[in-house]
Protein backbone atom coordinates (compact mmCIF):
# COMPACT_ATOMS: atom_id res chain seq x y z
CA UNK A 1 0.00 0.00 0.00
CA UNK A 2 1.29 3.45 -0.88
CA UNK A 3 1.84 5.71 2.12
CA UNK A 4 0.27 9.17 1.86
CA UNK A 5 2.76 12.01 1.45
CA UNK A 6 3.32 13.80 4.74
CA UNK A 7 4.83 17.27 4.75
CA UNK A 8 7.80 17.76 7.11
CA UNK A 9 7.73 19.51 10.48
CA UNK A 10 10.42 21.70 12.00
CA UNK A 11 11.54 18.74 14.14
CA UNK A 12 11.72 16.56 11.02
CA UNK A 13 14.11 19.05 9.43
CA UNK A 14 16.22 19.13 12.60
CA UNK A 15 16.47 15.34 12.78
CA UNK A 16 17.47 15.08 9.12
CA UNK A 17 20.55 17.22 9.78
CA UNK A 18 21.15 15.42 13.10
CA UNK A 19 21.38 12.07 11.32
CA UNK A 20 23.71 13.46 8.65
CA UNK A 21 26.13 15.44 10.86
CA UNK A 22 25.48 14.95 14.58
CA UNK A 23 28.70 16.62 15.72
CA UNK A 24 28.47 19.71 13.50
CA UNK A 25 27.86 23.09 15.19
CA UNK A 26 24.14 23.80 15.55
CA UNK A 27 23.43 26.64 18.01
CA UNK A 28 25.60 29.54 19.17
CA UNK A 29 24.51 31.86 21.99
CA UNK A 30 24.95 35.65 22.05
CA UNK A 31 28.38 36.62 23.36
CA UNK A 32 26.78 39.05 25.82
CA UNK A 33 24.35 36.47 27.19
CA UNK A 34 25.78 36.75 30.73
CA UNK A 35 24.76 40.41 30.81
CA UNK A 36 21.34 39.80 29.25
CA UNK A 37 20.18 36.74 31.23
CA UNK A 38 22.91 35.81 33.73
CA UNK A 39 23.69 32.57 31.84
CA UNK A 40 27.06 31.85 30.27
CA UNK A 41 26.96 31.53 26.45
CA UNK A 42 26.54 28.03 25.06
CA UNK A 43 27.75 26.38 21.88
CA UNK A 44 25.90 23.20 21.00
CA UNK A 45 26.32 20.55 18.32
CA UNK A 46 23.28 18.89 16.77
CA UNK A 47 23.76 15.86 19.05
CA UNK A 48 23.99 18.06 22.17
CA UNK A 49 20.96 20.07 21.10
CA UNK A 50 19.03 16.85 20.48
CA UNK A 51 19.78 15.60 24.01
CA UNK A 52 18.52 18.88 25.48
CA UNK A 53 15.42 18.84 23.28
CA UNK A 54 14.69 15.27 24.34
CA UNK A 55 15.01 16.19 28.04
CA UNK A 56 12.67 19.17 27.75
CA UNK A 57 10.18 17.21 25.63
CA UNK A 58 10.11 14.39 28.18
CA UNK A 59 9.53 16.90 30.99
CA UNK A 60 6.56 18.44 29.18
CA UNK A 61 5.06 14.96 28.74
CA UNK A 62 5.77 13.95 32.35
CA UNK A 63 4.18 17.19 33.54
CA UNK A 64 0.92 16.03 32.00
CA UNK A 65 0.62 18.45 29.10
CA UNK A 66 -1.77 16.78 26.62
CA UNK A 67 -0.86 16.47 22.96
CA UNK A 68 -2.03 19.45 20.86
CA UNK A 69 -2.30 21.70 23.94
CA UNK A 70 -0.75 25.18 23.90
CA UNK A 71 2.48 26.14 25.65
CA UNK A 72 3.30 29.85 25.83
CA UNK A 73 6.92 31.00 25.49
CA UNK A 74 8.37 34.40 26.42
CA UNK A 75 12.12 34.13 25.93
CA UNK A 76 14.95 36.22 24.43
CA UNK A 77 16.96 35.26 21.37
CA UNK A 78 19.10 32.61 23.07
CA UNK A 79 19.68 28.88 22.72
CA UNK A 80 16.94 28.21 25.30
CA UNK A 81 14.32 29.63 22.95
CA UNK A 82 15.23 27.30 20.08
CA UNK A 83 15.48 24.25 22.37
CA UNK A 84 12.08 24.96 23.96
CA UNK A 85 10.27 25.42 20.65
CA UNK A 86 11.65 22.20 19.16
CA UNK A 87 11.02 20.30 22.42
CA UNK A 88 7.41 21.47 22.49
CA UNK A 89 6.89 20.30 18.91
CA UNK A 90 8.53 16.95 19.66
CA UNK A 91 6.02 16.54 22.52
CA UNK A 92 3.14 17.35 20.17
CA UNK A 93 2.45 20.80 21.63
CA UNK A 94 1.54 24.08 19.96
CA UNK A 95 3.81 27.04 20.75
CA UNK A 96 2.34 30.50 21.47
CA UNK A 97 5.10 33.12 21.21
CA UNK A 98 4.81 36.13 23.54
CA UNK A 99 6.90 39.25 22.71
CA UNK A 100 9.24 40.48 25.40
CA UNK A 101 7.68 43.96 25.22
CA UNK A 102 4.41 42.56 26.56
CA UNK A 103 3.42 43.06 30.15
CA UNK A 104 0.73 41.79 32.51
CA UNK A 105 -2.44 42.85 30.65
CA UNK A 106 -1.32 41.50 27.27
CA UNK A 107 0.14 38.31 28.72
CA UNK A 108 -3.10 37.55 30.53
CA UNK A 109 -5.19 38.24 27.44
CA UNK A 110 -3.00 36.01 25.27
CA UNK A 111 -2.97 33.14 27.77
CA UNK A 112 -6.75 33.23 28.13
CA UNK A 113 -7.42 33.56 24.40
CA UNK A 114 -5.26 30.52 23.59
CA UNK A 115 -6.18 28.43 26.66
CA UNK A 116 -2.45 27.86 27.22
CA UNK A 117 -1.65 25.04 29.68
CA UNK A 118 1.92 26.17 30.47
CA UNK A 119 4.22 29.16 30.17
CA UNK A 120 8.02 29.17 29.81
CA UNK A 121 10.13 32.24 30.48
CA UNK A 122 13.55 33.47 31.63
CA UNK A 123 14.20 34.61 35.20
CA UNK A 124 15.47 38.02 34.09
CA UNK A 125 16.13 39.70 30.74
CA UNK A 126 18.04 42.98 30.71
CA UNK A 127 17.32 43.42 34.41
CA UNK A 128 13.54 42.93 34.11
CA UNK A 129 12.06 40.05 36.15
CA UNK A 130 10.12 38.08 33.55
CA UNK A 131 9.63 35.26 36.04
CA UNK A 132 7.49 37.55 38.21
CA UNK A 133 5.55 38.73 35.16
CA UNK A 134 4.80 35.15 34.17
CA UNK A 135 3.69 34.17 37.69
CA UNK A 136 1.33 37.14 37.97
CA UNK A 137 -0.16 36.55 34.51
CA UNK A 138 -0.57 32.82 35.18
CA UNK A 139 -2.52 33.62 38.36
CA UNK A 140 -5.19 35.25 36.22
CA UNK A 141 -5.23 32.61 33.47
CA UNK A 142 -7.50 29.73 34.50
CA UNK A 143 -6.00 27.28 31.98
CA UNK A 144 -2.36 27.56 33.15
CA UNK A 145 -1.16 24.50 35.08
CA UNK A 146 2.61 24.83 34.82
CA UNK A 147 4.96 27.82 35.00
CA UNK A 148 8.55 27.04 34.00
CA UNK A 149 11.69 29.12 33.77
CA UNK A 150 15.38 29.20 32.93
CA UNK A 151 17.79 30.98 35.25
CA UNK A 152 18.43 31.40 38.95
CA UNK A 153 16.34 32.82 41.80
CA UNK A 154 13.07 31.61 40.30
CA UNK A 155 9.92 32.40 42.32
CA UNK A 156 8.40 29.70 44.47
CA UNK A 157 6.15 27.48 42.40
CA UNK A 158 8.11 27.93 39.14
CA UNK A 159 9.80 24.79 37.80
CA UNK A 160 13.47 25.10 36.86
CA UNK A 161 14.19 23.96 33.31
CA UNK A 162 17.94 24.28 33.93
CA UNK A 163 17.56 21.37 36.34
CA UNK A 164 15.67 19.43 33.64
CA UNK A 165 18.57 19.93 31.22
CA UNK A 166 21.07 18.79 33.85
CA UNK A 167 19.58 15.30 34.24
CA UNK A 168 19.19 12.42 31.73
CA UNK A 169 16.10 12.63 29.48
CA UNK A 170 13.02 10.73 30.57
CA UNK A 171 10.44 9.01 28.41
CA UNK A 172 8.61 11.01 25.78
CA UNK A 173 5.65 10.03 23.62
CA UNK A 174 5.36 9.10 19.97
CA UNK A 175 4.02 11.98 17.91
CA UNK A 176 2.98 11.82 14.27
CA UNK A 177 5.22 14.26 12.40
CA UNK A 178 2.90 16.02 9.95
CA UNK A 179 3.55 19.53 8.69
CA UNK A 180 -0.19 20.19 8.43
CA UNK A 181 -0.53 20.12 12.23
CA UNK A 182 -0.62 23.36 14.21
CA UNK A 183 2.86 24.58 15.14
CA UNK A 184 2.61 28.10 16.52
CA UNK A 185 0.33 30.93 17.54
CA UNK A 186 1.53 34.50 17.16
CA UNK A 187 -0.42 37.66 17.87
CA UNK A 188 -1.32 40.60 15.67
CA UNK A 189 -3.12 43.90 16.12
CA UNK A 190 -5.57 44.86 13.37
CA UNK A 191 -8.28 47.50 13.06
CA UNK A 192 -10.60 44.94 14.72
CA UNK A 193 -8.24 44.63 17.70
CA UNK A 194 -6.05 41.91 19.23
CA UNK A 195 -5.93 38.76 17.08
CA UNK A 196 -4.31 35.33 17.71
CA UNK A 197 -2.89 33.90 14.48
CA UNK A 198 -2.35 30.10 14.42
CA UNK A 199 -0.08 28.47 11.82
CA UNK A 200 0.84 24.91 10.82
CA UNK A 201 4.43 23.77 10.30
CA UNK A 202 4.25 24.01 6.52
CA UNK A 203 3.31 27.69 6.76
CA UNK A 204 6.42 28.48 8.83
CA UNK A 205 8.58 26.44 6.47
CA UNK A 206 7.08 28.26 3.47
CA UNK A 207 8.10 31.58 5.02
CA UNK A 208 11.63 30.30 5.59
CA UNK A 209 11.87 28.95 2.04
CA UNK A 210 10.72 32.26 0.56
CA UNK A 211 13.63 34.00 2.30
CA UNK A 212 16.36 31.37 1.92
CA UNK A 213 15.72 30.70 -1.78
CA UNK A 214 15.39 34.37 -2.71
CA UNK A 215 18.62 35.19 -0.84
CA UNK A 216 20.36 32.09 -2.27
CA UNK A 217 21.60 30.80 1.09
CA UNK A 218 23.92 27.85 0.61
CA UNK A 219 23.47 24.58 2.46
CA UNK A 220 25.49 24.35 5.67
CA UNK A 221 25.92 28.11 6.02
CA UNK A 222 26.44 29.76 9.41
CA UNK A 223 23.61 32.23 10.01
CA UNK A 224 23.49 35.25 12.30
CA UNK A 225 19.91 36.08 13.38
CA UNK A 226 19.63 39.52 15.00
CA UNK A 227 15.86 39.79 15.30
CA UNK A 228 13.61 39.06 18.25
CA UNK A 229 12.10 35.64 17.41
CA UNK A 230 8.66 36.17 18.98
CA UNK A 231 6.67 36.55 15.74
CA UNK A 232 6.06 34.76 12.45
CA UNK A 233 8.82 36.73 10.74
CA UNK A 234 11.18 36.18 13.67
CA UNK A 235 10.61 32.41 13.68
CA UNK A 236 10.69 32.04 9.90
CA UNK A 237 13.88 34.10 9.51
CA UNK A 238 15.78 32.34 12.29
CA UNK A 239 14.44 28.88 13.13
CA UNK A 240 13.00 27.91 9.72
CA UNK A 241 15.86 29.31 7.60
CA UNK A 242 18.41 27.60 9.88
CA UNK A 243 16.69 24.21 9.73
CA UNK A 244 16.33 24.45 5.94
CA UNK A 245 20.01 25.29 5.50
CA UNK A 246 21.28 22.59 7.89
CA UNK A 247 24.09 24.81 9.12
CA UNK A 248 24.70 26.66 12.39
CA UNK A 249 22.50 29.36 13.92
CA UNK A 250 24.16 32.18 15.86
CA UNK A 251 21.76 34.30 17.92
CA UNK A 252 22.03 37.95 18.89
CA UNK A 253 19.86 39.71 21.47
CA UNK A 254 19.00 43.02 19.76
CA UNK A 255 21.03 45.21 19.64
CA UNK A 256 24.65 45.92 20.49
CA UNK A 257 26.54 46.81 17.32
CA UNK A 258 30.02 46.00 18.68
CA UNK A 259 28.87 42.63 20.02
CA UNK A 260 27.06 41.83 16.77
CA UNK A 261 30.17 42.57 14.71
CA UNK A 262 32.31 40.51 17.08
CA UNK A 263 29.91 37.56 16.82
CA UNK A 264 29.83 37.66 13.03
CA UNK A 265 33.62 37.64 12.81
CA UNK A 266 34.23 35.12 15.61
CA UNK A 267 31.73 32.60 14.17
CA UNK A 268 32.62 33.46 10.53
CA UNK A 269 28.95 33.98 9.74
CA UNK A 270 28.05 33.94 6.05
CA UNK A 271 24.48 35.23 6.40
CA UNK A 272 23.18 38.15 8.45
CA UNK A 273 19.42 38.36 9.11
CA UNK A 274 18.51 41.66 10.75
CA UNK A 275 16.09 44.60 10.61
CA UNK A 276 16.67 46.34 7.29
CA UNK A 277 17.57 49.74 8.72
CA UNK A 278 20.26 48.14 10.88
CA UNK A 279 21.56 46.20 7.85
CA UNK A 280 21.74 49.38 5.76
CA UNK A 281 23.61 51.15 8.55
CA UNK A 282 26.16 48.31 8.65
CA UNK A 283 26.41 48.32 4.86
CA UNK A 284 27.51 51.95 4.94
CA UNK A 285 30.44 51.17 7.28
CA UNK A 286 32.83 49.30 4.95
CA UNK A 287 31.17 45.91 5.42
CA UNK A 288 33.71 44.04 3.27
CA UNK A 289 36.63 45.06 5.46
CA UNK A 290 34.90 44.84 8.85
CA UNK A 291 32.92 41.61 8.32
CA UNK A 292 34.61 39.79 5.41
CA UNK A 293 32.93 36.42 6.00
CA UNK A 294 29.43 37.72 5.07
CA UNK A 295 28.06 36.54 1.73
CA UNK A 296 24.34 37.33 2.15
CA UNK A 297 22.38 39.94 4.07
CA UNK A 298 18.62 39.65 4.63
CA UNK A 299 16.98 42.89 5.73
CA UNK A 300 13.53 42.65 7.29
CA UNK A 301 11.27 45.68 6.85
CA UNK A 302 8.64 46.10 9.57
CA UNK A 303 7.56 49.23 7.66
CA UNK A 304 7.49 47.94 4.06
CA UNK A 305 6.25 51.28 2.75
CA UNK A 306 9.81 52.58 3.38
CA UNK A 307 11.59 50.13 1.06
CA UNK A 308 11.18 52.09 -2.18
CA UNK A 309 12.74 55.24 -0.68
CA UNK A 310 15.63 53.45 1.04
CA UNK A 311 19.29 54.07 0.25
CA UNK A 312 21.28 52.01 -2.19
CA UNK A 313 23.13 48.94 -0.90
CA UNK A 314 26.87 49.48 -1.37
CA UNK A 315 28.34 46.14 -0.29
CA UNK A 316 28.31 44.01 -3.47
CA UNK A 317 30.23 41.12 -1.89
CA UNK A 318 27.16 40.42 0.30
CA UNK A 319 23.97 41.15 -1.71
CA UNK A 320 20.95 42.48 0.20
CA UNK A 321 17.55 40.80 0.07
CA UNK A 322 14.64 43.02 1.13
CA UNK A 323 11.95 41.12 3.05
CA UNK A 324 8.63 42.94 3.28
CA UNK A 325 6.79 42.14 6.54
CA UNK A 326 3.04 42.60 6.98
CA UNK A 327 2.44 41.98 10.67
CA UNK A 328 1.63 38.33 11.21
CA UNK A 329 -0.18 37.97 7.87
CA UNK A 330 2.81 37.09 5.71
CA UNK A 331 5.91 38.31 3.89
CA UNK A 332 7.71 38.29 0.58
CA UNK A 333 11.31 38.93 -0.43
CA UNK A 334 13.10 40.60 -3.33
CA UNK A 335 16.87 40.47 -3.82
CA UNK A 336 18.44 43.75 -4.94
CA UNK A 337 20.24 44.00 -8.26
CA UNK A 338 23.78 45.04 -9.05
CA UNK A 339 22.92 48.73 -8.66
CA UNK A 340 21.96 48.11 -5.01
CA UNK A 341 18.51 49.66 -5.38
CA UNK A 342 15.21 47.97 -4.42
CA UNK A 343 13.73 46.05 -7.34
CA UNK A 344 10.14 46.59 -8.54
CA UNK A 345 7.65 44.11 -7.10
CA UNK A 346 5.00 43.05 -9.58
CA UNK A 347 1.50 41.87 -8.65
CA UNK A 348 0.54 38.24 -9.18
CA UNK A 349 2.29 34.97 -8.23
CA UNK A 350 5.95 35.27 -7.27
CA UNK A 351 8.47 32.47 -7.21
CA UNK A 352 11.47 31.81 -5.01
CA UNK A 353 13.93 32.82 -6.37
CA UNK A 354 11.84 35.64 -7.86
CA UNK A 355 13.76 36.10 -11.13
CA UNK A 356 14.22 32.40 -11.94
CA UNK A 357 11.76 31.02 -14.46
CA UNK A 358 10.02 27.85 -13.36
CA UNK A 359 10.79 28.39 -9.67
CA UNK A 360 8.30 27.23 -7.05
CA UNK A 361 5.51 29.71 -6.27
CA UNK A 362 6.15 31.29 -2.86
CA UNK A 363 2.94 33.31 -2.78
CA UNK A 364 0.81 35.86 -4.58
CA UNK A 365 0.55 39.63 -4.25
CA UNK A 366 -2.64 41.43 -5.23
CA UNK A 367 -4.36 44.78 -5.01
CA UNK A 368 -7.71 44.57 -3.21
CA UNK A 369 -10.82 46.55 -4.27
CA UNK A 370 -10.18 48.83 -1.26
CA UNK A 371 -6.80 49.92 -2.61
CA UNK A 372 -4.84 47.86 -0.10
CA UNK A 373 -2.30 45.06 -0.46
CA UNK A 374 -3.53 41.47 -0.29
CA UNK A 375 -1.52 38.26 0.17
CA UNK A 376 -2.28 34.62 -0.54
CA UNK A 377 -0.18 31.49 -0.50
CA UNK A 378 1.03 28.64 1.70
CA UNK A 379 2.40 30.90 4.44
CA UNK A 380 -0.71 33.13 4.69
CA UNK A 381 -3.21 32.12 7.47
CA UNK A 382 -6.37 33.19 5.67
CA UNK A 383 -8.81 31.78 8.24
CA UNK A 384 -7.20 33.76 11.08
CA UNK A 385 -7.92 37.04 9.27
CA UNK A 386 -11.41 36.20 8.02
CA UNK A 387 -13.67 39.28 8.31
CA UNK A 388 -16.28 39.14 11.10
CA UNK A 389 -19.78 37.96 10.26
CA UNK A 390 -22.08 40.97 9.66
CA UNK A 391 -24.57 41.58 12.47
CA UNK A 392 -28.01 40.25 11.57
CA UNK A 393 -26.74 38.02 8.76
CA UNK A 394 -25.75 34.99 10.84
CA UNK A 395 -27.85 32.64 8.69
CA UNK A 396 -26.48 33.92 5.38
CA UNK A 397 -23.29 32.30 4.14
CA UNK A 398 -20.60 34.85 3.32
CA UNK A 399 -18.58 34.55 0.11
CA UNK A 400 -15.24 32.85 0.84
CA UNK A 401 -12.12 35.03 0.83
CA UNK A 402 -8.95 33.38 -0.40
CA UNK A 403 -6.55 36.16 0.55
CA UNK A 404 -5.62 38.29 3.56
CA UNK A 405 -6.05 42.05 3.35
CA UNK A 406 -2.92 43.42 5.05
CA UNK A 407 -4.44 46.90 5.38
CA UNK A 408 -1.36 48.52 3.81
CA UNK A 409 -2.39 51.16 1.27
CA UNK A 410 -1.04 50.33 -2.19
CA UNK A 411 -1.37 51.29 -5.84
CA UNK A 412 -0.03 50.24 -9.22
CA UNK A 413 2.71 52.30 -10.83
CA UNK A 414 1.39 53.15 -14.30
CA UNK A 415 4.66 53.05 -16.28
CA UNK A 416 5.97 49.79 -14.80
CA UNK A 417 2.87 48.08 -13.40
CA UNK A 418 4.73 47.44 -10.12
CA UNK A 419 3.07 47.50 -6.71
CA UNK A 420 3.76 50.68 -4.70
CA UNK A 421 3.10 50.38 -0.95
CA UNK A 422 2.25 53.88 0.24
CA UNK A 423 1.10 53.75 3.88
CA UNK A 424 0.72 51.41 6.88
CA UNK A 425 -2.71 50.25 8.10
CA UNK A 426 -4.85 53.09 9.32
CA UNK A 427 -5.15 53.41 13.09
CA UNK A 428 -2.20 51.13 13.95
CA UNK A 429 1.11 52.22 15.46
CA UNK A 430 4.32 50.26 15.96
CA UNK A 431 7.18 50.84 18.39
CA UNK A 432 9.84 48.38 17.29
CA UNK A 433 7.99 45.10 16.84
CA UNK A 434 5.20 46.14 19.23
CA UNK A 435 1.94 47.04 17.42
CA UNK A 436 -1.00 48.76 19.06
CA UNK A 437 -4.10 50.75 18.11
CA UNK A 438 -3.59 54.49 17.86
CA UNK A 439 -6.73 54.94 19.96
CA UNK A 440 -4.78 53.41 22.86
CA UNK A 441 -2.64 56.54 22.95
CA UNK A 442 -5.64 58.56 24.05
CA UNK A 443 -6.19 56.25 27.03
CA UNK A 444 -2.51 56.32 27.93
CA UNK A 445 -2.39 60.13 27.70
CA UNK A 446 -5.51 60.43 29.87
CA UNK A 447 -3.77 58.46 32.62
CA UNK A 448 -0.79 60.82 32.53
CA UNK A 449 -2.80 63.68 34.06
CA UNK A 450 -4.11 67.06 33.02
CA UNK A 451 -2.03 68.91 30.45
CA UNK A 452 -0.08 65.82 29.44
CA UNK A 453 0.79 64.97 25.87
CA UNK A 454 1.66 61.56 24.41
CA UNK A 455 2.12 60.90 20.73
CA UNK A 456 3.79 58.45 18.34
CA UNK A 457 6.37 60.06 16.08
CA UNK A 458 7.61 58.42 12.85
CA UNK A 459 10.97 56.73 13.27
CA UNK A 460 12.99 55.20 10.42
CA UNK A 461 14.40 52.38 12.51
CA UNK A 462 11.45 51.30 14.66
CA UNK A 463 8.40 52.55 12.75
CA UNK A 464 7.30 54.94 15.52
CA UNK A 465 8.65 56.09 18.87
CA UNK A 466 6.69 57.34 21.84
CA UNK A 467 7.24 60.95 22.80
CA UNK A 468 5.40 63.10 25.29
CA UNK A 469 5.27 65.83 27.87
CA UNK A 470 3.95 65.78 31.41
CA UNK A 471 4.12 68.06 34.44
CA UNK A 472 5.18 65.14 36.63
CA UNK A 473 7.41 62.78 34.67
CA UNK A 474 7.79 60.34 37.56
CA UNK A 475 4.00 60.02 37.75
CA UNK A 476 3.88 59.66 33.96
CA UNK A 477 6.20 56.66 34.02
CA UNK A 478 4.24 55.16 36.89
CA UNK A 479 0.95 55.60 35.01
CA UNK A 480 2.34 53.98 31.86
CA UNK A 481 3.63 51.06 33.92
CA UNK A 482 0.22 50.63 35.55
CA UNK A 483 -1.25 50.28 32.07
CA UNK A 484 1.00 47.27 31.51
CA UNK A 485 3.63 48.87 29.32
CA UNK A 486 7.05 47.26 29.37
CA UNK A 487 9.91 49.39 30.80
CA UNK A 488 11.49 49.40 27.34
CA UNK A 489 8.44 51.29 26.08
CA UNK A 490 8.23 53.52 29.13
CA UNK A 491 11.85 54.56 28.50
CA UNK A 492 10.74 55.86 25.11
CA UNK A 493 8.66 58.50 26.94
CA UNK A 494 10.58 61.77 26.86
CA UNK A 495 9.82 65.27 28.11
CA UNK A 496 10.45 67.89 25.42
CA UNK A 497 12.79 69.73 27.75
CA UNK A 498 15.02 66.68 28.15
CA UNK A 499 15.06 63.02 29.18
CA UNK A 500 12.86 61.85 32.05
Automatic annotation (TrEMBL):
SUPFAM superfamilies in the cross-refs: Acetyl-CoA synthetase-like (SSF56801)
Keyword terms of this UniProt record: Ligase
Residue span(s) of domain AMP-dependent synthetase/ligase: 14-330
InterPro entries reported in the protein's UniProt record: AMP-dep_synth/lig_dom, ANL_N_sf
A GO biological-process term: fatty acid metabolic process
GO molecular function terms noted in the UniProt entry: medium-chain fatty acid-CoA ligase activity
Family that this chain belongs to: Belongs to the ATP-dependent AMP-binding enzyme family.
PANTHER family per UniProt: ACYL-COA SYNTHETASE, MEDIUM-CHAIN ACYL-COA LIGASE ACSF2, MITOCHONDRIAL
Protein name per UniProt: AMP-dependent synthetase
Amino acid sequence: MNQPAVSPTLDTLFQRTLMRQPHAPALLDPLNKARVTGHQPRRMSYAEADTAIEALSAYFVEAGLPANSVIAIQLPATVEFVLTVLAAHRAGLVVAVLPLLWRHAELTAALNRTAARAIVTMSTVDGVSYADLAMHAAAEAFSIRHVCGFGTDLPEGMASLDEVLARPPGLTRAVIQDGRKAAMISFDVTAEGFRPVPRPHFSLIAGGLAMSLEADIRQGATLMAALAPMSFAGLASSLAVWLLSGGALALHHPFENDVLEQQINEHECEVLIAPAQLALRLGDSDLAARMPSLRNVIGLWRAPEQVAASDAWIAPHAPLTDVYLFGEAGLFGARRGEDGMPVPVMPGPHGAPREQSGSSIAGEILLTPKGTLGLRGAMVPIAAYAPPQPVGDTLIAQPPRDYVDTGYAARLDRPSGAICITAPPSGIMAVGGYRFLSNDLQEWARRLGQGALLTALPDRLSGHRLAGRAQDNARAREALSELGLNPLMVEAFRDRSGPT
